[in-house]
Structures are given as C-alpha cells and as structure tokens.
Amino acid sequence: MASAGDGDDLYQVAILVDQLKHDDVQLRINAFNNLERIASALGHERTRDELVPFIADSIEDEDAVISVIADKLGGLTAYLGGAENVHVLIRPLELLVCGEESHIRDRALKSAEDVVSRMSEEQVMRHFVPLIQKLSSKDWYTARSGAASLIALVFGRITDRARSDLLSTLGKLSSDDTAAVRKAVAKSLPSIVRSASPSVRMDMLELLKVLAKDEQDSIRIQIIPASAVFASTLTMEQKANNIVTTIVSLASDRAWRVRWSLCHHLKDIFAAMQEGSSSSAGTSTHFSSIVNTLANVFENLLNDPEPEVRAAGGMHVSAVCKFIPKAIITSKIVPTLQRLAADNSDFVRAVIASEVSQLSPSLGKEDTVKLLLPLLLSLLRDDGSDVRLNVISNLDGINATIGVELLSQSLLPAIVSLAQDPKWRVRLAVIELTPMIGQQLGADIFTNNLVTICIGWLSDTVYSIRKAGALNIRKLNDIFGEEWTAKQIVPKLEKMQSNTVHYHRMACLHAAQVLLDRSEVPLAGSGKTKVAVPAVSETTATCSVTLCRLLVPIVLQLARDQVANVRMTVSKILRYPLTLLPGTDPLRAEIMTTLKGLGSDTDRDVRYYATLTASLK
Length: 617
Known about the structure:
This protein is mainly α. It has 36 helices and no strands. Helix 31 (502-516) runs parallel beside helix 33 (564-573). It is flat, with a radius of gyration of 34 Å.
C-alpha cells in the first residue's frame, strides 16, 4: 500500500511533467532540471518511449532551456532499463551537438561522454561511429565541429579499422573551410593521442604540424597543450625532431596570445619532455639538447615585446626553472629577471617580485645571496606598492635557503619602510603579512625591529589600520607566546591608556579585548562589524589567568575616562575576564565594583552594557 508521502511525491512529479510544456520559461527550466526525478517516476519503458522523444522535440526551445537539457541528458542513462537501451539518447544528443551556441554543444559533449561510458564497444560501433560519419558530411559547420569532438570520445572504444576511418575523417575536417571545425579538431587531439597506437601517433604528428601553421591563432593556441600530450607519448628522438620544432615555431608566433598561452603551458611541456630522459646515454644527449632549446625559448618569451607575454612568462619562472640546469639559470634567466625588475610595466615587475624568491632552492645559498638578494633589494625600492608587497609575501622560499640572519640583514630596512608607507592600504597589507614575517624572523629579531611599529599601528589615523593592528597583536601572541606579550606588549598598552587622543585609548582597549577573548567577535565599540580571527591552536584558544590579570587593570583604569564611548567599551570588555578569573580572585570583586559604578553612569548606553555584563557573572 502506497504511503501518503509517496502520493505527494507522485503529485509533485505530475506537476513537473506538466511544467515541461508550460508557457513560462522559468517553469520549463525548473522541470528539465528535474529530469532524473521525472524519469524515475515514469519508469524505464515510459522514459524510453515518451520522455526521450519529448526531449528531442524540445530542442527547438529557448537557449536557456536547451542548455539545461544538454546538461541533464547524460543523467538519464540510469533510467532507461540497462546499458542495452542507452542508445535511445543518440537522437537528442545529435541535435544538441549541432546546436548554434558553443556552451550548449560543450554541455552536450559531457552528456555524450556519460552515454559512451555506459555503452559496450559493440554499441559504440553500431550507434556512434555512423553518427560521427553522418555529422562530418553535413553542410552546417556546427555538425562537423561536433563530429570532431565525438571522435575524441569514442576513439579508445572502437576497432582498429574504425579508428583508421575516423582518422581519415579527422584529416578532412582539419582542412575544413570553417575555423571552428579546425579548432574542434585541434582540441580533440590530446584525447585521441592518449588512446592511439605508436604508429597512429606518428601519423597524427603530421596533423599537429599542419594545424600549428593554421592561419587562425585560436587554433594554434590549441596545439600547445596538444604538443605536451604528444611529447609524453613519444621517444626522445621523436620529441626532438617533431615537438621541439613546433614549440620553437609557436614561440615566435605573430600573435601575442599564442606566445602568452605557450608561457602558461611551458612547464607541462618541460615535464613531458623529461619523461624517459634517463633510459640511455643517447636519450640523455637528446634531452640535454631539448632542455637547452626550450630554455632559449623561455628566455625569449621573458624578453617578449608584449608586457602580457613577459608577465605570463614571469608567473612560471620558478616552475620552469626546476627543469633547467643551474648554469643556464644563472647565465640566462637571472640576467633577464634583472632587466624585468626595471620593466616599464608595473604588472610585470609585480609578477617578477612574487617569483624571484622562489628561485632560491634551484640556485642554492651562495648564488641566492650573490644574485637574488640584490634583485630583491632593487624590487623593494620599487615605486609600486604591489611590487614591494609581493616581495614580502614570498620571503618563505628564500628564508629556507639562506637563513633568517642574512634575510633580516638584507631586507628588514625595506620592510620597516613599507610598514610606514603613506598609503594606508599598503600598511594594511603589511599588517596582514606581519605574523608570517614574525614566524620567519623569530622573536628576538622581530622585537628589536618591528614591535614598535606594531604598537604604532594601534594609533594610526585610519580605523581599519587600528582594527587590523589590534588583531595583529593577538596573532603575534599566538606565535611568540604570552610571556613575550606580557613583556613586550602589555607595558606599551599601559602607556597608551593615558594618551590624550581618545581613539588611541580605544585601540588600546581593542588590543586588550582580542587578547582576552579568542573567539570570532565584533570589536567592542565598533558597532555590528565582525572581525574574522584566524583559528589558533588549542593551547592558545583561551587567555591565561596570568595574562588576564595584567590586562584587566588597563581596562579598569579607563572606566573613569571622560569619553562615554570609551566607558561603554570597558563595560563590554569586562565580560571576558569574568569568565576567565576564578571566583575567589580579588580582581573579580574590583570588576563588579567598577560595573556597579558604570551602572549609574550619566550615559544610558554605558549603563545598559554595564548592567548587562554584571548580569553575566
């Protein structure tokens, strides 16, 4: 007997079925988004005989609806009554892969991949191969483009004879008059190469070379990732004679977007070339020659006339240099980086600043000190704040190589200067990096050089800096420990409590608050704004009673402040020590006495929060 819940579900499905034909586009979109639910309710037979033909007829709908159909069609393979019935989805797939909109065709191809994965090789041969041949001979270019994409999906699931026929079809499509078809061929090459035999790969190399010289730069761009896949499947001699020449040609391509794309794929090409590089002496010789050639390519890209290309190359300096011998790095790459450090483009210099320190593991300590440190110092004197910040943000790599002593001697003056930059956003960025700098420098060096600046941020004229400075104090406490905080921070907060500027006294209270309470809380006195605090370890999740006893007198002293907002902030903050101090602690009595006095304050907000805090004891 069906339950009431089952009846409600069937009713909802019936509504969805009706909405498949509704005049409202949004209702149709919602219904097609629930195709699997509808198919489950209809059963296998009705799904095959009714739902799938209806879907095929609906492919003349609005693009938004067709896009949903293309996305959801592959999910129906589980509701057709077994793998032997999956072929019924071929008809709607054929219509979708011929669609005018590229994003719809892409989604249809993903659904086609689901369908192919559920089919046996015999079914793929019977249903998909004829479909591809049919599409490849159609007049409309989208059908031929779809045929090229489908070849990549089925190539590993068909017989050798069928593969030969499809490769012949692919060759014809590679010379198609429409660029979109040739582009689809280029995009399909990597998938086909992975499942092709060695002899077939050699035949396809000629296809790769032809497309690498295509008049359309969008097609030549697709050849770059395909070259990396080809390289991973070839012998070292074949790589040197075929792939390397193609890469060299693309590196001097007339379209800057091709050279830009090559920059982003060059590390993958190096990795593919490295496969099988140590199997024999002859192979090793070929590999050395390949590396030298590709290193020259990379150097040329870094010196490209277009700043976008130089920046793209700069983004991958450290990754690419992992494959390049140290001698080449020092003789070619580093001098190029030295020139780029004075590039006319701010973006190029900012990219180089983020990558330079990551080269240190490849160079070692001696060459890092000799070659990279002067370059970093030059970048730290750059007029662009992003350039200087990128240097500081990426000091971890060079720190691990040369050690903190050399690092601090060379770079600390520049960091101190940046921490006092006139632009408040620069100062804010430095504050966010300060905990990381503290971890690298250690407590002694940090205290001697940067702790005064950290306290100075609490007195900044910009509220965002004061707020971030307070949170920074808490992060430093988590790194260096409460003993360091008690010695280096608390005495300075005691001096701030008597400052004549009221927002300095407020910043003092905010610093005390974040030290007393480690949860995500709004800073007292800052309205409803929440300040996210990074998670800390369990050992520092709460303030110790010892540190609490040092901070509470600072807060209590400000309970008599002339500014009501300061007194109100005190009323809010005193709830934290009440939860930390034991019941017999004399400070609790002093806190309650202070709250009682604030409870009769002339300002109603002070009275409210004092009364509220006292009630939480």
